[in-house]
Fold these 4 entries.
Entry 1:
Amino acid sequence: MRPRDDKDPRIERSRGCVLEATGELLQELGYGPLTIEAVAARSGVAKSTIYRHWSGKAALVADAFSHLHDREAPAAPPPGPVRDRVVAVLQQLAIDMASHDRLACLIPALIDAAERSEEMAALAPQLVDERAQSLVDVLDDGVKTGDLRPDIDTRLLADALTGPLVLARLFHRPPIDPADIPAIVDQILPRTAGG
Amino acid sequence: MRPRDDKDPRIERSRGCVLEATGELLQELGYGPLTIEAVAARSGVAKSTIYRHWSGKAALVADAFSHLHDREAPAAPPPGPVRDRVVAVLQQLAIDMASHDRLACLIPALIDAAERSEEMAALAPQLVDERAQSLVDVLDDGVKTGDLRPDIDTRLLADALTGPLVLARLFHRPPIDPADIPAIVDQILPRTAGG
Amino acid sequence: MRPRDDKDPRIERSRGCVLEATGELLQELGYGPLTIEAVAARSGVAKSTIYRHWSGKAALVADAFSHLHDREAPAAPPPGPVRDRVVAVLQQLAIDMASHDRLACLIPALIDAAERSEEMAALAPQLVDERAQSLVDVLDDGVKTGDLRPDIDTRLLADALTGPLVLARLFHRPPIDPADIPAIVDQILPRTAGG
Amino acid sequence: MRPRDDKDPRIERSRGCVLEATGELLQELGYGPLTIEAVAARSGVAKSTIYRHWSGKAALVADAFSHLHDREAPAAPPPGPVRDRVVAVLQQLAIDMASHDRLACLIPALIDAAERSEEMAALAPQLVDERAQSLVDVLDDGVKTGDLRPDIDTRLLADALTGPLVLARLFHRPPIDPADIPAIVDQILPRTAGG
DNA sequence: GCTTAATCGAGACGGTACGTCGCGTCTTACG
DNA sequence: CGTAAGACGCGACGTACCGTCTCGATTAAGC
């Protein structure tokens, strides 16, 4: 349907080099000190070309994250009883949250950007909910199977479960050890066990 | 606080103006776009004077947060049964986060700042924990009175309770109506009777 | 002059604007109070662009002097007997020094600049000597024709002749009337016949 | 007659320290890089005190020169025949002109300042003429004794004689060796020998 | 294969903010 | 009082990146 998509392979090559370089620099410097000039220098792609493809640093970095994640196995949906599946999801979240080159380290910027811009305010819940949805899905499954009470608000419960992890990360409290997550789940989840 | 023999009142005056202006600008712009130049313009204090007192943006912002924090009266702990006290604390939190003149409404800026500056990363948990403590205290009381089971981690529970509120605020999901907070508490708060 | 393959015409345009503005400001302010900032404002060229082309104020001013020097047509040497030619040259000098749009009227700025910058210290004698040469040439001709004694140092004599004019101008003594120049020349210029 | 001149000895002590330090720094740095802050630091005298006594860098430096010269033997008026006395005066001038810590190195600043300020324009000839007068006096003596023709303009002649030295200095041409001065005098002076 | 138009690198441009330095003024406390 | 100490507002410094813009010099495409 789209008349001329991206026939020119140079576009894709440039994109690749830039995202590669951005990923490297993100790991080396983090988000704040990363500069478009540095990306241009490292990638050998001209600044003008970068701006031709991305609207700015935020867009570029967001894209670089996607690029990095595309190359990884998409988080496998864990099988088993609800409680174990919840634990698995949260453990994965804890790991992501601690890593330097994951979406997690963009979240602070995202939060602040959402505060100042209509666009970002609209985009933020979208991006976050996408990730959060997997947990809600697991909980919904639990409701369906009767492992969880039918009257619970699974969205709310998901936030209550992720809250401790996310808040610790955002406020730079000591990070939560994935090994402690079963205990956390057991404290919060059982309240909702089907009765 | 400290028995300084600051003879020259100009020092304290400058400090005050600058911290005031910094607080305002943090709210308007957030951490990233905040510039020392803008602080100087807004406060009427010369840039050189700002650098005379603070080593840079990070130190200034950290100080501004502390300053704002100091001037907020610690919310009086409400009386009554645990569940109602928790509800009251969370309702106050919901109100604070939506307001325009409280430290709580600077949380997005604080999160972003903590991500980019060592000083703020160290300060953030301090500021946040102090606020969070009131809820933990209420829960601890509940444990003492036997309204809550003795085996719970009150710190964790506090995060689970505030999580939904804070996350909704940060990610610009539809704001939570204070009227809904009792329902939220009832879903998450485990009471001795298990009901 | 140099066969540069400067494809981008903006470079030359910027250079021109900046040198123009620098010349103007040198005349108005002199070397000391001249500011790169002011040059940028006057020329409409960004400060960063100026620093892209020149290493600093000294280099810029040196270039501005060369630029002004290049555009001044070398005054045609007057014909006639030596004494009259000397008078003519000095009268032209007197006029130039009093004017507002000639390099000669920038001599005060040049002297000060030469005192404070290596570049200008190297350039100054170059600029000045080139102008002085025309008088030396006239005197050399006089020696050749026998109008002047062959044992004189024409360079020295040229300085002795211009000295009164230049010193009066520099030290703001009452200016010398061009009509008085013949008398001056007659006192200082040694002719073969001995006066 | 003056009611209370400077009874307070601290004033004189401060003045001394400052002038001392200024002299030292002038020799070390020259006029351009010399800073009032540096003078204050070196002398141990507060900046405010310096500004209480002098209007600025130029005035301070001028004063420092006077102070330095006051401690030296005032140039002895040379005896003997006119020609030798002229040579002696010019040789002293040549030496002064070459030294770093004499009035000579203020002259470029003086010239430029005179160009921009009424005050300085009035002051400049005064300061310079004071020094030039000794040569004019010598020449006037020569006229009186009949060694020089009575119809010469001694002021003009003095400028012609000093011109080569002064111009070489101001335009950073190679400095004139005092040993060459007799030859210079002999080329310019004889024209005016009494006939 | 031969244009021809898209895409590129290189980097100049006008800006904004940086953090520093020295200015000349002003304020306080001391002797 | 005059002073040392030093904070202050100010303005310029020279640098780093920003995001925009002109340039030829490759290409890859469709004629």
Note: The two ends of chain A are 53 Å apart (CA to CA).
Entry 2:
Amino acid sequence: MKSGAHRAAWASICAPDFSLALTLACGQVFHWQPCPAHGAGFAGAIGDVPVYVEQRGGELWTNGPRDLVAHYFALDHPLAEIYRSFPTDPAMSGALEFCRGLRIIRQPAWECLATFITSSMKQVAHIAQISHTIRRRFGQRLDFEGAELFAYPPAARLAELDEQTLRECALGYRAKNLLGSARMIATGEVDLEGIRALDDDAARAELCRLPGVGEKVANCVLLFAFERVRAFPIDVWIARVLREAYFKQKRNVSAGRLREFSRAYFGDYGGYAQQYLFHQARTAQKSRRRGKKTCRSPRGNP
DNA sequence: CTCCAGGTTCCGG
DNA sequence: CCGGAACATGGA
């Protein structure tokens, strides 16, 4: 990082078995941005605390509060033990090789829930765009040199908007769901923090009471915010991976079948396995598209 | 222009 | 329990 940055004491945190870049790029969180003004790292908000982070070998440098940063990036998760729990089939081994150091972070619950409510039938890039728009328009501006940072607006803030206003953030039909969920949480009809105390099944059921929250989004919140590392969100990508890798010959593998298989096969750190498979598959797809020659359609001959 | 994207909800076999 | 269809918007 450059020497001009100050304001808080810089701290270096011991962070072995950690890849900051993979952790931020794998699709579990959407608002961190490169920050050239400070260096090769990233700027983002942890809740309403603006933070710069940069990895240097086995250390994580930051101008933010040490404990907050270490907790957010889950530097205490036992990666070696987690890897030992992974099955050793080709698909999983390939994903592990590709994603080594990726950690499932501890996100604030509401912003995690809200961003995944807006995620349905949207590309990852667009989820990030919606998240940024909502932060910029309704979130608290955070004091930070080198980047424009905004906190995610609290549920109570979104709850006071009307659907039309929210739709201007390009949410489409998801605006109604986000608004409805924000209101249920703002009124206390659903106690989001209280869900922490519940077991996985009860927590998932409670989350599913919110509009726009089904099993997949609930599992994302359990995994990315409530540290339920068994939770195994199944989206189109993971469904494809599972069918290709584990049900190659089978026809018509139902969603229920996939859910049951993932629970039994990946075990207590299934959420980690899921995210590694997800990121590996998506990255492989991207590089395949990039490598392909840009071929225009031969259709329009004048 | 067509297709599809980290789904959810509702509806009929 | 299972498969289909509607639902908005933008990028490839």
Note: Residues 86 and 234 of chain A are 17 Å apart (CA to CA).
Entry 3:
Amino acid sequence: MDSNDSPPRRLTRAETKARTRTLLLDAAAQEFARKGFAGASVDDIAERAGFSVGALYSNFAKKEDLFLELLAGRSGHQLAEAAQIVADQDSSVQERRQALGRLLVAAADKDVDLAPLQAEFWLYAVRRPEIQEQLSSQFRTTRDTLAESLAAWARDRGRPGDLPLDALSTVVLALFQGLVQLRRTDPALVPESLYGTALGWLLTGITALTEESS
Amino acid sequence: MDSNDSPPRRLTRAETKARTRTLLLDAAAQEFARKGFAGASVDDIAERAGFSVGALYSNFAKKEDLFLELLAGRSGHQLAEAAQIVADQDSSVQERRQALGRLLVAAADKDVDLAPLQAEFWLYAVRRPEIQEQLSSQFRTTRDTLAESLAAWARDRGRPGDLPLDALSTVVLALFQGLVQLRRTDPALVPESLYGTALGWLLTGITALTEESS
DNA sequence: GTCTATAAGACGATAGAC
DNA sequence: GTCTATCGTCTTATAGAC
């Protein structure tokens, strides 16, 4: 089984192959984000990764497989982060809002490829019903994580039970994605503070209306 | 000038050409929505419109021109409609919310090509800075229409001046777009009533917080 | 103004050397 | 496992008949 754990060894064959796969996936993510699934060529992907097309096809049977592996593996991590910020009980409400604003800005500005790639995933899934379930299960997971964080927030405020968490977390998720896209089109339209502010409106409103009807 | 207004005439040459252009644009919209800009072929577009490629190229110099004309001409009409619903002072608050929910559902479900086509526009604009301004000016127009409607709503409720209308209308716009995309991925995630409900939370919250700080 | 036919090139995917 | 070279297909765009 080639049990070689000694440190100064270069790289296992399995490791180099795994590294090649990762490099190809990274390159594919960039090309798909910049040119779209149909617009990106396997040639450009291979070249960006520093390999030839032959090496690519020895690791992935079809161009589509690269896309599907990205779709399966890289999603929604930034919103799980958002949920943790909301759930962080040590920070003040104002701190949380600022942190969320920064997160939105980071998602929209810093990782320039993220939002286009996710839009590309969405389009791909919308066009192929057999993939749709995969994407919607990711959305449900993100929403559920978000719902837990919002439940923690509600407990903090002493009003535990009666919040419509599914609806609220869906709205928070949709708002986040919508604002990221708007900011990407025109940063002036979506200042850094807006997401936190909007969350404040939502949570204040839902609290008032939920109290009122009980 | 060929001033022919008599009824039983077939069609002017200019009219047939305009009709051809329209048919080609309709077909292009469907193909771009279903396969993307890069994925759609001029052949399929021409065939769907009932013409040949030659006829297409006699009306549009490049495939890109079809896309750009669609991008310039068909946008945001459904949200202008939303704004009118919000502004309609004859209907009750509950009626407005139901109407908005129906509008969201219509945008997400009925016109199956609309949301994918707009996503395609967005990706195209994000990838070409020279187009970005065109899209963001459309967003600003939609937002401003929305802001007027919300101002009317605020006047109705007797609290005219002190609402952050730009911020609020941006949030409403982002929420709408985010929910449409989520509903397209999984209808169970976004029930028809959610948009109206979320608007209720937002407006209640913003009213409470704006009062509080004054 | 619309057609058919074709030019010129890019594409995804494969074969065989190393 | 990665390379280079190539195959066959599909693409956009053009040319010339009608």
Note: The radius of gyration of chain A is 21 Å.
Entry 4:
Amino acid sequence: MGAIRAEYRCLRRAELPVGTIALARYLIGKTLVHDAPEGRRSGRIVETEAYVPGDAAAHHFRGMTPRNRSMFLGRGHAYVYFIYGVWYALNVSAEAKGVGGGILLRAVEPLRGIALMQARRPGATLENLARGPGRLATAFDIDRRFDGIDLCKKGPLWLGEAVRPTGAIGASVRIGITLEAHRLQRYYERNNPFVSGPKRLNI
DNA sequence: CGGCTGATGATCT
DNA sequence: GATCATCAGCCGG
């Protein structure tokens, strides 16, 4: 484990790896921060899924639309969509400007603002607070108002450095899709209880 | 724990 | 009109 860092800077766009898969792995262990009037929420990203160019399961596969345009803004921007009539999900755009690529943030380990998260998800255990993309967005109070914002500067929502060393990273098939289901493009920190999904995928 | 299912509305065809 | 990058609740083992 090692010492936990209390202060951390935001990630610079230049240091984000180029390419969706490389960035999806890089983001494991980094910090997601939401600065709101009521206070700061932060968490360690422990699970991501890559949606690369040409992937039929990806929202950007059929080209740019009003909904998915944020995934074409160049790496390091937020793409937030509404799904199943109930949930929001947060992605990080991942390719060069004009190219569609996205990384779904599936789970974080809460660091700060836990009481704020619990207020949004009453009754949830600490492990379940932000475990799963819909729960993460709810706990962090993320919706379409953040769609398209730059995550590489300290605005209301940004990406920070890792606050402690990152553990071994595992890979598995992605969750909840039917197309391109064989791709091993879900990444997670091994042995981390804040990771979502069935046990068999978290080995 | 694992499997199943209904809820619910934006989006695109 | 179909689909959907999900979740909570319920059931059985």
Note: The radius of gyration of chain A is 15 Å.
